[in-house]
Every structure is written in structure tokens, then in C-alpha cells.
Amino acid sequence: xxxxxxxxxxxxxxxxxxxxxxxxxxxxxxxxxxxxxxxxxxxxxxxxxxxxxxxxxxxxxxxxxxxxxxxxxxxxxxxxxxxxxxxxxxxxxxxxxxxxxxxxxxxxxxxxxxxxxxxxxxxxxxxxxxxxxxxxxxxxxxxxxxxxxxxxxxxxxxxxxxxxxxxxxxxxxxxxxxxxxxxxxxxxxxxxxxxxxxxxxxxxxxxxx
Length: 209
What we know:
The chain is mainly beta. 8% of the residues lie in helices and 46% in strands. A nine-stranded mixed beta sheet has the order 1-2-3-4-5-6-7-8-9, with no helix packed on it. The protein is globular.
């Protein structure tokens, strides 16, 4: 922990444990910088105006059933307004993939130093944040994403320029998948649009949607 009046606050070597298994590491962050609005805080406003996350590291593992063992990205919430939300920036990303059941090798470490995400409060009653993300990496290529999310819904638009399968990409793929890709020539661009929602459980005698 670093920081003092009137400077911003800096948290180093932050560790986030799995909510269902407190002894298991879910993510770690090299550094979190908190931009503190001291004047606003003194007047009863939001104390944090910006959060900068530097090189988060995710531990992603698949269980014996082939399902990704990760808490839901749709947080359980009561929908109450959390006014005064800060801006959030993420710089760099490290991902450790373990026991993957498809596509890539069962144990892969991916470093993305040029990964960038910016989140800005949406300002509407329906959404919490808008975000834009980008990464230019030899394994993943040139990726861009834009979206928004609330406590129960997530919209995402993902695009990739120059969809070429490079030798660096093939290094992290499962050997069978790599052999299959070698049989084809894949090129061009790609754009994906998706939506994820949390659906309430149906009441007794009714059909959920």
C-alpha cells in the first residue's frame, strides 16, 4: 500500500481469492492505482474518480466435466443505483489456462502487455458501464471490443482484423486442432456480436424464458 494526502493511492501485489474456495487464487494484480477526489470526498461525494489496474493475472481452470470453473460475470445484485462510479482502466493482462478441454494445450501461459480496457460509467438507468478494449498480440492478433453491462446483462461486440493464423497462434493450440487448421487457409476479418442475460427463475406453474 502506498499513498498519502493529497496523492493518489497505490495498491501493489493484490490477490483475489475464489469466492467458493477461499484458499484458491482466482486473480492477482501487480498494481491498482486509485485516483482519489479528496475535495469531493470532503463534501460527501464519491471519493474515487478513477481506478487503474496494471497487469492483472487470471487463473482459469476447467473442471472434470469440461466446464470453466469461474464465478458468473453477472453479479447478483438488487439493481440499486451505485452513483459515483469511478472510471476504470486496465493495462496489460496475464492469463494462465489450465486443463482446457478443447482448442488450446492443457496448460498455457499467455502474456498480453499491450492489452488495454477502459470502462466509463454509462450514465443511464439501464447500464452500469460502457467499455472499450483492444489488444495487438502475436497469439491473438489485433482484437477490438466494445460493450456495456449491468448487474444482470452483458452486451459485447468483438472484432478482429486480418484473421490470419500465425505460427505463434499455433504454438498454443491443441496438436489435433493445429493439424486440422493446417489443412485449410484461413484469412479475412471477423466480427461477433453477443448478449448475455441473467434470467430469473420461473415461478411455480409458469415457464421461464
